[in-house]
Amino acid sequence: SGIETLKRMESDVLYEMIKNEHPQIIATVMVFLDSAQAASVLKLFPDELRNELILRVALLEKVQPAALKELNEVMSRSAGPDSDFRRSTVGGIVPTAEILNMLSGGLDKMALDTVRNYDAELADAIQEKMFVFEDFLEIEDRSLQTLLLEVPQDTLVIALKGASPKLREKLFKNMAKRAADGVREDLETRPPVKIQEVEEMQKEIIRVARALAEEGRMIMERGKQGDAFL
After folding, report:
1. Cβ atoms within 10 A of the Cβ of 136, count?
2. Which of 37, 80, 98, 198 is surrounded by the fewest CB atoms within 10 Å?
3. Residue 47: in which H helix or E strand, if any?
């Protein structure tokens, strides 16, 4: 199907294919992709257009038939005549939050500011749904153990520079004693690092967690309502 064709494409190939389309069509394409792929394509757009596209995804309650028709025409030209987007897919707050979670280097904040300038309540709603590093406090121990086996020590040490003492202790508790001692020692002796680098490493760990959740190897749930983050 057309959706599967898109999902198999490299980000730069997909970018070249859609970059000159109407922003609403590009936003519609983003909704059909998973959040990691959407983010990697969006990184390639100029800042102003990327921010507009993310706002459009946030406002996209339902893909309109006219947009689907145009999307099918675009895909037929670019990816072959078997492209067919029938599914009524939904944009909105959750997909936007998931895409922003995958953006780093300040691109997420820039896009959220654009949404906030348009609609502060919408931006707040998106921010509430975004998974942040401290949310690992609310993740079950078994899932954290799975995650920590997949994260390089160097990445973890830098990420923990910006973590609360409570989160640090929870993570140490879910590591083998020797590994935890090594991370503690590294934390104490490591020279200061830039906040941006800390945020990058925290985002990287969230990306690893999402990938594990999508494979069914860990559960990313937080909060009393049990909102699932996949």
Report:
1. 24
2. 80
3. helix 47-59
